[in-house]
Amino acid sequence: MRFNKGQEIIDILRGKYRVINNYPQDIKDSIEYIDNIEEKSFYDIYSKHKGLLSDKWEQYLHVYNKHFRHFIDENKPVNLLEIGVFKGGSLELWGEYLPENSKIIGIDINPECADIKFNNENIEVIIGSASDKDFINKHFKDAKFDIIIDDGSHICSDVITSFEEFFPKLNYGGIYIVEDLHTSYWPKYEGGYYNKNSSINYFKDIIDSLNFDYINIFNPYKTKLNKIKKLKTLNTQIGSMTFYDSILVIEKYYKEKQRRMKSCLIGTENLSNGETKEHKYNKFERFFK
Ligand SMILES: C[S@@+](CC[C@H](N)C(=O)[O-])C[C@H]1O[C@@H](n2cnc3c(N)ncnc32)[C@H](O)[C@@H]1O
C-alpha cells in the first residue's frame, strides 16, 4: 500500500487501524499532528463544553478558530474582554481555549451576571454598560486587551460607541470582533438597509482607512475634516477588516504603521539600454502577527 499524508488516508488509518502500532514513522507523525490540531481547535473545545451556557452562531466557531490561531500557537497568556456575559458560558470557553493564565473579563449590564460562579480565577465579570463612557473610564482607564469581543446589546449606537471607546484599548497585534452585525439591518436595533447610522455602515466607512494613503483628501466630495482625521489615525492601526455572515473581525497591525506601504520589485528587469538589473528584497518589516 502506498501512503500519503492526505487527510483522507489518515482518517481511514485512524478509524480502521488505530490499534496497530507499526505504521511507517511519517504516518505516525501525521496522525500525531492531526490529533494535536484537533485538541487545540475551538470546534473541539466548543463541542466538548459541558459547563455554563453559551450562545454563539455556528460560523463564529470558524472565525475564532481562524483568527485566534496565533494566540494559541504563541502560547502566551492574553487579555480578553467580552462585552455581553449572558450565562457566563463564553467566558468559561475562552478560559478553556486560550493559553494558560490568560485574563478574561466580561462586561454585562445585568447585575445577575455578577453572581455567576466560574471555576477559573482568571475570569472576572464587571457590571455596567459597555456604551457608558463614565463606566468605561472608571473601570478600564488604563486597560489594554489582546482580544475584544462585542457580543452585548447589538444596538447600533452601542456597537459604535463601544468600538470608539475600546478599540484604542486594543494592543497592537490584537483582534476586535463585532458579533451579530445582522441586527444593523433591523430598525429595532436602530438599523436598516441603507440606514446611514447603522453599525454595518459605520464599519463600511472605516474600510477607507485601510487605503487612506492613496486617497486624495482634497477631493470634490468635501469630506469632513474630523472624518479625515479619524481615517488617518485608523490607517496607522487597522491591518485588516474581515466581514463574514453577521460577524466582523478587525485586526490591529503588529505595531503602529508609520509609513506608506512600499512596492518591492524582485527579479530581473530588462533595461532599455539592453542591460539587465537584478532586484533584491530582503528588508521585510513585520506588519502582521
Ligand atoms: C447575546 S448575550 C451574550 C452572550 C454571551 N457572550 C455568550 O456567548 O454566551 C448579550 C448580553 O449582553 C448584555 N448586554 C445588553 N446590553 C448591554 C450593554 N449595554 N452593556 C453590556 N452588556 C449588555 C445582556 O445582558 C446579555 O447578557
Describe this structure in words.
- This protein is an alpha/beta fold.
- It is globular.
- The strands form two sheets. Strands 3-2-1-4-5-7-6 form a seven-stranded mixed beta sheet, sandwiched between helices.
- The protein is 35% helix and 18% strand.
- The protein folds into two domains: 7-39, no CATH class; 57-252, Rossmann fold.
- It has helices at 7-17, 25-40, 42-48, 58-67, 69-74, 89-97, 133-140, 156-166, 199-210, 225-235; strands at 79-83, 103-108, 123-127, 145-150, 170-178, 238-244, 247-252, 267-270, 276-279.
- The longest helix has 16 residues, at 25-40.
- The structure holds S-adenosylmethionine.
- S-adenosylmethionine (SAM) is lined by residues 54-56, 82-86, 89-90, 107-110, 129-131, 151-153, 158.
Name given to the CATH homologous superfamily of the largest domain: Vaccinia Virus protein VP39
Helix content: 25-40%
* Class inferred from helices and paired strands: alpha/beta
Number of strands: 9
Under CATH at level 1, the class of the largest domain stands as: Alpha Beta
DSSP strand content: 15-25%
CATH architecture of the largest domain: 3-Layer(aba) Sandwich
Give the strand line-up of the largest sheet. 3-2-1-4-5-7-6
Instruction: Using the CA coordinates, give the radius of gyration.
Output: 23 Å
Provide the residue-averaged pLDDT: 89
Biggest sheet details: 7 strands, mixed
Total domain count? 2
Task: Name the poorly predicted regions.
Answer: 16-20
In the CATH hierarchy, the third-tier topology of the largest domain is known as: Rossmann fold
